[in-house]
Amino acid sequence: MRLQWPRTRSALAALVVVAPLTLSACGYALVGKSVTTDPTIKRVGVPIFKDRSGRHMLDQMITRKVVEELLRRGKFEVVTTTEGVDAIVDGEILTSLASPVGFSSAGAGSAGTQASRYAVTVTAKVVYRKPGEIEPIWSNDAFIFRDEYDMGANPSTFFDREDESLERLATAFSRSLVAAMLEAF
Predict the structure, then answer these.
(1) 10 Å Cβ neighbour count for 80?
(2) Which end of the chain is more exposed for a tag (fewer CB within 10 A), N or C?
């Protein structure tokens, strides 16, 4: 049997038109671009996260980074109070654990080793809700974020590198948290 060219060409043209339409509905989207939040939310309150981890300044650092990330992604005003807001982000840092995962020699003439790379895991309880409503918009009782950081081989710069690493951790933690809150389905 011989195919007729005009019929085949029109079928091919229809396929070219229909295929992109069906593929666009397959669920793929640009990460970080979609904000699925209630359009009535114009002002969000983010009080300082409570800190049960004992890590100095981590609560303030994470709160500041969450506010910055909400401002960067959202189409609403973000304040650090719970008064006069349409939604509240309540957070509590439950744990902050640092575990050595990489080692280097302790230095010339020394037989020991020292940790040069750490895995830091932060666990937090976060609730994103409207004031006065029982059911939250989004919540997670054990939001876990883990990352690894190089501390270097020089022990005299440990504290400088630790502060730098915590700043990076707070930034990455807040990006992950805000993405989970605003892009949840």
Answers:
(1) 11
(2) N
Give the closest residue to 75 by CA, choosing from 83, 86, 64: 86
**What are 102-112's pLDDT values in tens digits?**
877 765 555 66
Q: Is 177 exposed, middle or buried (0-12, 13-18, 19+ CB in 10 A)?
A: buried
The predicted-structure confidence for 126-171, as pLDDT tens digits, reads as follows 999 999 999 999 999 999 999 887 776 666 665 566 677 788 889 9
Cβ contact 113:106 at 8 Å = yes
35 class by beta-carbon count within 10 Å (0-12 exposed, 13-18 middle, 19+ buried): middle
Structure tokens at 123: 């666990």
Statement: the pTM of the whole predicted model exceeds 0.85: no
CATH topology of domain 37-182: Double Stranded RNA Binding Domain (3.30.160)
Length of the chain: 185
The β-bridge partners of 97 are 121
Which tokens is 135 given?
């059911």
For helices 158-182 and 58-73, give the axis angle rounded to 10 degrees: 40
Q: Where are the domains of the chain?
A: 37-182
Which pairs from 109-117 meet CB under 8 Å and 24+ separation?
114/153, 114/155, 115/151, 116/150, 116/151, 116/152, 116/153, 117/148, 117/149, 117/150, 117/151
